[in-house]
């Protein structure tokens, strides 16, 4: 494998993984650990299996068709690509407001500045990445460095929390309870909405495509889920260590209290670094991928796509600074993101059997069956969660 290709593949994996690891990821992992205790390990295991199945299918079909997801959807059914693009961009924008808010919270913890000022600073940093000539390479390197920082710091906190690892391993395979809402939320937060397309579209832009690139693409797609899952597991164990000691998490900021209870004031500052890194890399990933969904829909967007990305980040920052973070709307969009996955994956599976899209490529039967299972399971669990979980939010 060429060195440049290896760098692009790693960059795509980290772009996808750090897009998934945002403020919502940190909060959801902590909240569900407090609720389900060691049995949350089972939820993580099931979500990893679903994540890999979804991502393998989607990245392969993007690669062999050599088209972005919205163009594939339009080829399956005219107009479907526009519908998918609207869903992705709306979800991406709502999530980005939360990501900007998370970045503001991180700077508030680190430097004591107001979350609004921190959000403004973070928005400028994210915009700066897309204003340089080699924006793609800088984005890859930025997400890799901050990804490593997040994981390393979380590992340190996990060890100081002293979790009951044996119980966690046991309950991962024999849980006390199975929570559908938790599974849908985790899958939606890892490969839902725009996230699973982040790396696939990045590889396409970098020229890693076609049947001959499939082994590399498979490795990159699984690596991306692996990176996000490692972070999830370490954070789960850190939170479990705190909860198992009978300590109470602060409901206004559960992940911050895990870090603080585990490692005191140093832990609190570490949380600031992790939160900022998680948030600002998600801002970059959400903006890049959301705009990649509308790039091919009009020549003007294609020509000025970099400025559309800058505008996307600027609007997200403006909304947070002026309006604040609409928590309930963000949770609602999070659940809806879980429902975008079966739609998007279903479209991709249909496309895999259309020769005008994939040529003479033969999609593996086991992947199709795995993908169909995910479409059915996520549709069922997503609707179940919406019907039962969303009314609770708006009481």
From TrEMBL:
Q: Which residues cross the membrane?
A: 36-59, 80-97, 109-132, 144-161, 181-200, 221-246, 266-294, 306-323, 329-353, 365-387
Q: Please give, as recorded in its UniProt entry, the membrane topology of this protein.
A: Multi-pass membrane protein
Q: Which organism is it from?
A: Bacillus seohaeanensis
Query: Is Membrane among this UniProt entry's keywords?
Result: yes
Protein's UniProt keywords contain Transmembrane: yes
Q: What is its main location?
A: membrane
The alphabetical list of record keywords is: Membrane, Transmembrane, Transmembrane helix
Q: Mind telling me which InterPro entries this protein's record contains?
A: NRAMP_fam
Localization terms from the record: Membrane
Listed name of the protein? NRAMP family divalent metal transporter
């Amino acid at each position: 494998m060429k060195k440049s290709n290896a760098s692009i593949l790693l960059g795509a994996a980290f772009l996808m993984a750090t897009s998934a690891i945002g403020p919502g990821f940190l909060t959801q992992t902590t909240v569900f650990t407090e609720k389900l205790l060691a049995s949350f390990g089972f939820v993580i295991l099931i979500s990893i299996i679903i994540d890999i199945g979804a991502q393998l299918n989607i990245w392969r079909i993007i690669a062999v068709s050599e088209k972005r997801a919205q163009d594939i959807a339009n080829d399956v059914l005219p107009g479907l690509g526009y519908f998918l693009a609207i869903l992705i961009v709306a979800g991406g924008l709502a999530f980005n407001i939360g990501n900007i808010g998370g970045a503001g919270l991180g700077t508030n913890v680190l430097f004591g500045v107001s979350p609004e000022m921190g959000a403004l600073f973070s928005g400028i940093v994210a915009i700066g990445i897309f204003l340089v000539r080699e924006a793609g390479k800088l984005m890859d390197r930025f997400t890799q460095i901050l990804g490593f920082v997040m994981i390393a710091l979380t590992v340190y906190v996990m060890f100081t929390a002293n979790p009951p690892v044996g119980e966690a391993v046991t309950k991962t395979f024999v849980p006390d309870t199975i929570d559908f809402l938790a599974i849908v939320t985790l899958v939606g937060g890892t490969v839902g909405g725009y996230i699973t397309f982040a790396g696939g579209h990045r590889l396409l832009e970098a020229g890693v495509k076609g049947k001959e690139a499939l082994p590399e693409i498979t490795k990159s797609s699984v690596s991306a889920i692996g990176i996000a899952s490692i972070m999830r597991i370490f954070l789960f164990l850190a939170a479990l260590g705190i909860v198992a000691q009978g300590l109470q998490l602060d409901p206004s900021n559960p992940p911050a209290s895990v870090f603080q209870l585990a490692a005191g004031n140093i832990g609190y500052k570490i949380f600031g670094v992790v939160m900022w890194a998680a948030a600002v890399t998600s801002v970059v990933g959400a903006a890049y991928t959301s705009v990649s969904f509308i790039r091919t829909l009009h020549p003007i967007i294609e020509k000025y796509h970099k400025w559309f990305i800058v505008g996307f980040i600027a609007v997200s920052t403006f909304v947070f600074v002026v309006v604040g973070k609409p928590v309930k709307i963000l949770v609602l969009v999070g659940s809806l993101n879980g429902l975008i996955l079966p739609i998007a994956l279903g479209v991709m599976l249909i496309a895999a059997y259309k020769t005008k899209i994939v040529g003479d490529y033969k999609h593996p039967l086991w992947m199709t069956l795995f993908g169909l299972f995910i479409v059915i399971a996520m549709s069922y669990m997503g609707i179940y969660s919406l019907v039962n979980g969303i009314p609770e939010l708006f009481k």
